[in-house]
Design goal:
Helix 4 links the parallel strand 4 and strand 5. The chain contains four helices and five strands; from the N terminus they run E-H-E-H-E-H-E-H-E. By secondary structure, it is α/β, with parallel strands linked by helices. The chain is globular. Helices cover about 35% and strands about 20% of the residues. The protein has one domain: Rossmann fold (3-Layer(aba) Sandwich), CATH 3.40.50.2300.
């Protein structure tokens, strides 16, 4: 099985359970292997054992916010794709998220394409 054929290990860090589970369900439908966390510190601790193929982060997280988690992940890997999924829509937040190392920024609410 080639790299493009295998399931991706994706970490989803979102404190709102319905959103986290919705993202994880959509990823499973697309044959990926998501692992969900409801706070940044727990996700950071879990990723010490190994980096995922993709990190999807909320900004407003308990114990360690998504911005700090992004900074730490980026310090460990400049190749890890990081996407913010957040309700913060201000241009300042988008620019800050991208400047600290996120690859993309998606505002909630959003829907999965059919």
């Amino acid at each position: 099985m080639g790299v493009t054929d295998r399931a991706r290990r994706i970490v989803v860090v979102e404190d709102e359970e319905t959103i986290r589970e919705g993202i994880c369900t959509a990823l499973r439908r697309d044959s990926h292997d998501p692992l969900g966390f409801d706070d940044g510190q727990a996700a950071w601790e879990a990723m010490q054992a190994g980096m995922p193929d993709l990190a999807i982060l909320d900004i407003g997280l308990p114990r360690m916010d998504g911005l700090e988690l992004c900074r730490r992940l980026r310090a460990r890997s400049d190749r890890l794709p990081i996407i913010f999924v957040t309700s913060r829509e201000e241009e300042f937040d988008r620019v800050l998220g991208l400047e600290i190392g996120a690859d993309d920024y998606l505002c909630k609410p959003f829907s999965r394409p059919s």
